[in-house]
Amino acid sequence: MNIMHFIRQLSQQCLEWLRVQIETHHGRIVLLGLVIGLLYFPLWIHDLVIRSISGSTGLVLISCAALMGLIPLWQKRQELKQLVASEEDRIIGHLIILGSVVMFPFFRVDMWAQALIWLFIMGGITLSTWGTTFFVKYPLTTLLIPMTVYTRPGIIAQGTWRFLMPENFLENIMAAASTQVLQWIGQPAIAQGRFITMPTGGAVEVAWRCNGFNMAVAMAVTGLLLGIFFKRTRLQIARLILVGAAVGLVFNVPRIMLMALAHAYWGEWWFDFWHGSWGAQIFVGVLFTVYYYTAMAMVDRQKRSLKKV
Predict the structure, then answer these.
(1) How far apart are CA 251 and CA 212, in angstroms?
(2) Do 36 and 118 contact (CB within 8 A), yes or no?
């Protein structure tokens, strides 16, 4: 009964909010922008869930970023009500919303473009409702919420890496490192560029999705979120980020080794298992567990050092 009462109360509040928005020029423009958000949401949640099933950490990281960005707004909701956008901010915000709404139908195929348009709409709604003061008073929300609009938050890092680094740079390093460890345990593995050759089972290619970059980015973002959550200093957050990226890369080596061994000795089924969604989820689970305890040890040590000071 309490749940039903809460749902009815929430429905009444939503209807009242809609009624108020419809009555004002600003409210109608905001609602128009939110309609675009509703159109983008099914694609966003579908891609997020599908990628999570395949072993992606996006769902967890984006959920954490959203909660950490929205909770401060909820805690300071009374203060937020006092913010009012200036006339100039409101006009600029409305132009951003309307321009984004007009552009949206032309980018129905590209998800990244829809995400960018939705980000502009959210920025326009924020600017026209609370003004530029919002971005100054709530820097954490301003940082974290944009990370949630796209299901692949590491896409910018990928593009930057590929632009700056030689082709197959990380793939070759991962293949060489995995081959070296395989040789240490007595396996006759040979590295040829990004390929690992096993005399008994042909060659395994270390492709882009297997080079550990995505996991390094995911662990780096995890370090950022943990640092913000525990209110660490910028230097301490940077350390958590660097350690996270390092752990992600190091843990990719045994994964490549396992797939090379599966391909050489255990058959196609085992290779597909470790290369597929189940194998990815197992590695992600182990990786997150190891990094969590590593990060907690770092945080505890930082707290103890602060107490001594």
Answers:
(1) 8
(2) yes
